[in-house]
DNA sequence: TGAAAAGTGGGGAATTGTGGTGAAAATAAG
DNA sequence: CTTATTTTCACCACAATTCCCCACTTTTCA
């Protein structure tokens, strides 16, 4: 499972090294998608397949499920590793994530998240401030 | 399966390069037709066969399913690839899609969608606005 | 402290995307 | 029916991008 937080640089070609610890879990391929809060999600391919099937099965007749499927599927990208363990993030995903030079790669159990470092910092500050409130909200989840 | 977003140019003869990643899935032929929201749908031939059967089976009694089936069936056109991996979009489909110089080709699992770039942008802006509800939508899918 | 592994950068070959030209086919005109 | 004109298609050539490999630096771990 994916755990931990790593700081890596995005080079001029849009390449990003995936932390070596994670690579073993991604040998069957990986898919990057638009995530929440302006970060990117990276799933192992088989995990992604499950999600994609659900998306593809949504009724094409309804405007908002159609829109949703478009954002998630067209917003995704299958990524390959080069011999150095790097992936290439397509231009439209770098834009979506506001990614500059430095990125943070965070392990979230079944997926990785890719953040621009600045956004990650401010997000952390914000939420650590509020963590008291958040804890209460978690009460609803019976945790 | 088709995923991702690609920006390609439509030349003066109505030719459009299909992203190389997708060509392997279309070696048995492809069919383009009128899609929803002013884009074109491109299906692998076998997928198209399935869809066409379903369309033909729609209740002929209902005015709007009839109209929908007519649009997709009558609007369809088989396309071939030239040696550079391009297809020719017939004039009536280019017109239907309001296609100008630049087109976006989006992968939606079992089909490709072909959009005029400007329309794609405004569609995305529109829906990404709303998809702050994206999280809730995820909930509905139990993801 | 030394060796191995991980991360970063860059150069060059191969692939992909784009534009164009000329032959063949289809259509229209004489 | 022949000829002229337009359209379509196959092929060629260039430009841009991507990918693959090599080299260097930094970090990790014994």
Q: Main attributes?
A:
six-stranded antiparallel β-sheet; DNA-binding; two-stranded antiparallel ribbon; homodimer; 8 strands; alpha+beta
The major beta sheet of chain A can be summarized as: 6 strands, antiparallel
- The poorly predicted ranges of chain A are none
Strand content bin of chain A? 25-35%
Helix proportion of chain A: 25-40%
Specify Rg of chain A, calculated over alpha carbons.
Answer: 16 Å
Mean pLDDT of chain A: 93
Question: How is this structure best described in words?
Answer:
The structure is a homodimer of 143-residue chains. Chain A is α+β, with helices and mostly antiparallel strands and 143 residues long. Chain A contains five helices and eight strands, in the order E-E-H-E-E-H-H-E-E-H-E-E-H. In chain A, a hairpin with a 1-residue loop joins strand 7 and strand 8 (111-116). The mean pLDDT of chain A is 93. The A-B interface holds A 31, 36, 51-52, 54-56, 60, 63-64, 66-71, 73-78, 90, 92 and B 1-5, 21, 36-37, 106-110, 113, 123-124, 127-128, 130-131, 134-135, 137, 141, 143. The first copy, chain A, binds a DNA duplex (30 and 30 nucleotides) through loops.
């Amino acid at each position: 499972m994916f755990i931990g937080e790593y700081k890596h640089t995005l080079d001029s070609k849009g390449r990003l090294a995936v932390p070596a610890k994670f690579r073993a879990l991604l040998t069957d391929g990986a898919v990057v998608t638009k995530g929440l809060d302006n970060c990117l999600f990276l799933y192992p391919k088989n995990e992604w397949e499950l999600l994609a099937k659900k998306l593809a099965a949504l009724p094409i007749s309804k405007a908002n499920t159609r829109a949703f499927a478009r954002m998630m599927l067209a917003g995704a990208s299958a990524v390959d590793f080069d011999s150095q363990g790097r992936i290439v993030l397509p231009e439209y995903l770098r834009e979506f994530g506001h990614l500059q030079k430095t990125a943070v790669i965070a392990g979230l159990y079944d997926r990785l998240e890719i953040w621009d470092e600045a956004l990650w910092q401010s997000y952390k500050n914000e939420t650590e401030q509020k963590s008291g409130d958040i804890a209460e909200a978690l009460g609803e989840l019976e945790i």
